[in-house]
Amino acid sequence: MFQPGDFGSVSALGNVIIAFAIGLVAFSVLFVVQRTFYALGDTRTPFLFTLVQVVLFSLAALACLLFLPREWIAVGVALATTVAGVIQLGLAVALLRPKLGTLDGRHVVTSLGRDLVAVILPIAAGVAIAWAFGAFRDGGFAVADRWSAILVMAIVGVVMAAMYGAILWLLRSPELRGFVGPALARLRRG
Prior knowledge:
The chain has 190 residues and is an all-alpha fold. It has helices at 7-21, 24-39, 44-67, 73-100, 105-132, 146-170, 174-189.
């Protein structure tokens, strides 16, 4: 995984991580939706929509093995995981809605939309910083060795997190304010 001087391996691993990261939000929402079924005492329905996900993933992974070039199979399997998970989430939400009556979908979509808008500039900044440190070229500082990679990841992570938090604050995200509000209140008192 950390092979200095093997830019091809580092790039390949990065592509797999990107393919998984695309579905991270859907995976996180699915985690909450599944637990809602469990809280309602329903373990059968999550089994069924997970079974659909497993079948879809298995078919897609098999297609990757049969039709993709060898160097892209891992990326294809990771993307198959992402796509099957997104479909699983859609099915889970569709099956949950009748049990709860309303899910206040407008509020959820508005919140996720705000979060998506807020992440655009931090992503651009993170890519720009990584590019400036040579993350996308063989021999660049960001991929020269383990410690330079860790340093660049830390810089990119801190900048992106700070920008994301600031943009959410400016967009008056109720979720962020609910999280940060009590901490700020304690700091003001202390």
